[in-house]
Amino acid sequence: MSFKDKVDLFPVSQLDSTKDEKETTLSELYDKPEESNSTNGDGTTIRSVAVVKKSQVEFPVTFRELQSNTDIKTPPSNWLRGQFSICLPNLTPKRSDFTSFIMGYQFPDCIGEVDIVSDAENIKKLLKMAYKPNTHLSMMVHRIGKTILIDDFDIYKYLLRRGHNEWKWLRKFFYEHVLESLDERKEQNVIVRPDKSRDVVQSRNLLSKFLYHSIEGNVKQTTPEQEGGESPVSVKALSSPTKDASGELLAEEHMPDCSVQTFARNVIWNFEDVRMLIGTDLPIFGGRTHPCVSLRLKEMDKPINILTGIDYWLDNLMCNVPEVVMCYHQNGIVQKYELFKTEDLPHISDSPFSPQLVRDIAHNILSFLKSKAAKEGHTYWLFKGKDDDIVKLYDLTSLCSEENFESNEKDGAKENVQDDNPFTIPVAILLYCVAKKLFGSKDAVDKLPTVRSLLESSLSLINKDMYPKIYCHSQLILADIYLPQDIDPDVPTLVDIKKEEVLLTKVNETKTDSKVSKKNTKKGKKGKGSETVSINLDTLCRHHGHKSSKTKQKTSESPNLSKNVYERCNDAVRHVILALQFLVNYQKDETTSTGGNDRDSEGRHAGNIPDEPKRARQNEPIPMPYEPLNKTPPKVDTTRESEENQEISNSLRELVVSNEKETDEKRGSVRNKKEGKEESKSNTQNVIVPKAVLAGTTLNSYLKDASWIDQFYFKFFRKTSLIYMTKGRIELTSCNYGLCLRYAKLSLRAWCAMVKILNTDKEFPLPSQPLLLAGDVYYNLSKNWDKTPQHIEDFNSLSEEHQNMNEILEKFVPFEDTRWSIKAPCDNVEAMMLSFKCFDVAAKFTNSKPDIDLKRRVASICNELGCIYMNQADQLCQNLGTGIDGCGSLWEDSWQFICNAFDIFEEVRDTENLALLHCNKGRYLRLYAFYSSSVNGEQVNNLSVYKIYEKAVKEYEQALTLLNSKQSLNSQVRVSVVWEFSSTLFGYATLLHEDDEILDADKSSELVSLYNRCLKLCVSEAKTCNSKEPLYEYRIAVIHIRLASIYHQKYRSGRDSKMMSLAEMHYIKSAERFIKLDSSPEDILKVHLDHIVLLEDSLEGIKNPLYKWKKNLSILKLLTDCLHGLAIVKRQREERRNVDQTNEEKKGQKANYDEKLDGNSNEKVILQPLLELLEKKLNLSLLTMLRLSKSENKSLKPYEGDLKTMYSASLNKLSKSIDSHLLDALSSILPILNSIRAQFKMN
């Protein structure tokens, strides 16, 4: 049966898959099932699925069947002349030695997701070992995460044809430890030279001509781009290297040109449970009834052997090709075609093989490599001699490090095996590419531990001087992993990261393995045996039933990132410091090597491999070294930079005045309101960056023309500012104000260094967050000044980290230019002033939208400063006694700050704080009026003082109005306002009360009104405010006695009985309040004595003896009511005596306590006169009643004896202290008096 009767092929457009983003299964393209199954003779099914990851084929190729007896040795007309959409075999194949790495660069998302990355030919060579035991095997193996990279290694090419100094470490190891163990016969089987015989070349030439003959004549062709010996294949050129946002070049720039090294298609091949990323060049043709076939050329007289069958079978499985077409020829003359199904290839009679055995080899090879090639970054050599039955795996990194260590000990040389290992840099760059790809993925948060491990492994391998951009970008990503740029330093929260298991050793283990100890070097070959493992071919071919290839392997759980934000900040700043130190040194070396001082110089390309020739890049014109004839030197604006620096310097110096000025001006007044508004407006016109810049706003417009060094400087300084800002906020919550202030200073200084890197002529504002942090610290220091020395010590102490960062920042922002920034305050007032200045400058540099919270903070600080200056002025006026003249500047500053705070709170409509500000203004006016009315202890009452008090009263009334309008406001605010209001009313009334003109002119109604308002306010608050109840009770008692005195005065002048009744009522209420307080005996005695005087005044001109008797009984009752006050005096004396006695006993001394008590200033000045007056009133009252009992009124005669007894008791016969005498006398008089009053009432 001829092939023509069976097949009618036609082109299928779906075969093209040039889009990298979309993965397409070949079976979908060809209308075949997704999973290709191959059934073994025992019924076992081999599962195989291939997914096209990327295809270079642009157009499908139509198959043209050649006529019988066609001479394919004759070159076709299209041979080597056009580029077709099919990858044809190259006459002189040029394949990169880094094919797995190139695929890794192209598809970094597959690294860690697939088990193996390799050329399809390498995979086939491994899987055919069971059927070709005499095959030679030499491959390099590397591990990246969970993925094994396999590349072919030609011993003859790299060890025998290289220069003497190339691969010296591996050549030495090969000669001394591989060939040394073999005899001469086997030595020839180890070094296998490439077969370039005439038959091989002719066979390859014949296959190329046959495939070109088989292409349909009307296939679309493109303009040839490759001449000479290049293969006519259609390959999409790789895009030229570009710069990303970080400024580093893509990894392809550091690798050999791969424009002719890509495969026709890259496929994700799932062979059973083994997942592989492979590159294949299998030519695929299509037709009408058989849209997907592979084409093979076979000699007629040679049967298909087992190796050829396995080769065809694996090629079709890797590409999901369902059929293969065999073209048989004899001496180049076509004889016939034959069609085979892919699943039938293992069962061809001439070459049967077991797919199950191939599957077992795949399982065992993967298990062997994953368990033994476990160290990431190490280079392993998978080696098998031509006739050996053992496959060996050498850890070249460890073994050759030992050799290098031994030779260096002997020769004293300092060589690093990594510098001679051509795989080190590709491994490091691939680790970096994979980490960068994972870091930019959508689920990057869950992969951060893996990204960190990959980057740390890459940094341990890469030469940072040769690849500075990759080194810096790796350090930047690591810093971002520990502390993301979008984190809010005010509320630093981190996303919880899931734990990952990564098939790689820890980075420190990899580093440790490269440093060989002296003990290992002394062991010689025995020590090296531990770095070499082997496996027998029989073991590789062993059947394991249907167990999954995902065998248990030693996994090391990737160390999870700490959840402690402070620890993460320390890790991040460690990477930032390493990168900045490197950039400083690299820039210095660059300047030295170029002989100039241009840090932006790109003359020496940092990313190129040394000695690599420069290549032209696609779509980029080649620069020609021509210059215009009339070339004028560019004008250099020497004033722009100095003006820019001056602007920035002036803006920064507004933060805190210099040390010299600050000491003299710590009480300097705030600018007046109009000047402040104009200054604020002028300073915020060009504000372009809000505080969010610190958290990651991109500034690409400034970095567009910057060099890569400046771009990294900018990013690292911005990261530094964010790190220290976050650490400062954490320290603030822990009340470590010294460290917090230091971090705020470092954050601000790093920001200034970043601004200097921008080199822009525009005004660049300060970040508000470090200023706000410093303001918070200063505010807290002013409130906790007793602990400030420890905080100052923390601020001045420098750790190694701080010293390193200061050394770096010093190169960009010299210390003498930053003396203004952050400093330690001298006292709590200066701390509060510094806090105000920080908040004030931060408010200027916010964006155009008003920051309400920041305005509130500025207003709060102004209010605090106003209160501080007001209290200082109050204390100074009390001490000096000169009124307001001695501290006028303090009163002015206080009023200015309070008014500024009031304006801001009014602007933001903060009702609660406005009420407090009204209260503070009222208090200020009250104190100012009080000290204005008193000069050298003398009252100076005038109308201006009264007007100030009236303004104070209005302020408090407005405060209460605001508080009453919103019941939800803080009750403590209302308590404070009401107390201050009552104090103002009381003070104003007291001042009026002491003005004789007010009472003489009978204008006391205003005074009584003030007292009544204050009394009403105090009575209502005393019921609800427990904290101030004693104060309110005392003030109520004082107001009552003062109102009583006013009515008493009016009674004296008018003899109005109503006035007397009011006076008596207030005297009684006042006495009740004082007795309730139980703490002021002098007030109790005074109110009773004043009440007695009122009763005595009422007896003037009265001649009726019964009326006089009645009033004197009332006077005696008031006198006995003084017993409560006398008891308090006795109790207080005993308490003082006990305290003094205890103190004297401790000193071993004795003293006359009575003498000490008599010398008590309070008793001597206030209490003693009252007691003497009380004794006098007692004697006078009893004498008056004795005279009345002897009068003509006989009804009073029965009381004469009791009166004599009471009078006798009132006399101090034993010379006791006056208070003791009165206490005893009144105690004995009280029961007699009660008896007399009862009898008099009955009669």
Task: Give an overview in words.
- With 1243 residues, this protein is an alpha+beta fold.
- It has a domain of 297 residues.
- The strands form four sheets. Strands 1, 2, 3, 4, 5, 6, 7, 8, 13, 14 and 16 form an eleven-stranded mixed beta sheet that branches. A four-stranded mixed beta sheet has the order 9-10-11-12.
- The longest helix is centred in the middle third of the chain and has 30 residues.
- It has 46 helices and 19 strands.
- A hairpin with a 2-residue loop joins strand 5 and strand 6.
- Helix 26 runs antiparallel to helix 27 and helix 32 runs antiparallel to helix 33.
- Helix content is 54%, strand content 8%.
- The N terminus is likely disordered.
- It comes from Armadillidium nasatum.
- One of its GO terms (biological process) is positive regulation of DNA-templated transcription.
- It holds the Pfam family EDRF1_N.
- This is Erythroid differentiation-related factor 1.
Return residue spans where pLDDT drops below 50 for at least 5 consecutive residues: 1-34, 219-260, 499-530, 546-556, 597-619, 629-698, 1153-1159
Biggest β-sheet, characterized? Answer: 11 strands, mixed
Round the mean pLDDT to the nearest integer and report it.
75
Number of helices, where a helix is a run of at least 4 consecutive DSSP H or I residues: 46
Q: What's the total number of strands?
A: 19
| General form | rod-shaped
Q: Report the helical percentage.
A: 40-55%
Strand content: 5-15%
Entry summary:
This protein has 46 helices and 19 strands.
